[in-house]
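Hey, I was hoping to borrow your eyes for a little while. A protein chain has come my way and I'm curious about its shape. Take your time with it, there's no hurry, and the full record follows here:
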Amino acid sequence: MLVGALIRQVQQAGGFATVVHRGDPTSGVILLQCLERGKPCGLFERVADGSGGYRIEPCGPSDHLDSPGIDSYIARRRRADPDLWLIELDVAQAERLAAAILR
């Protein structure tokens, strides 16, 4: 449900969103691979904030966003957690938009 809402919001903002890997609908961690005009701008994870809500946190190798390091990080995470969702967002201010939906 959250993933669908996020995809609709990205599309309404004039961007593109797709589910790269479908995870468990109730307990799967959500990873967001964010781009802006096709250029990588971040990898984020939805994490619990300790007060009953959620926030978006950067994850993975932050020094080289378009390096093979990102792909290998994602592959490791998928092997370790097959319930993980991987969503690709290509829209301006993807992190801000995702944070508003996935809290």
Q: What stands out?
A: The first helix runs from residue 2 to 12. The chain has a mean pLDDT of 92. The first strand starts at residue 16 and ends at 21.
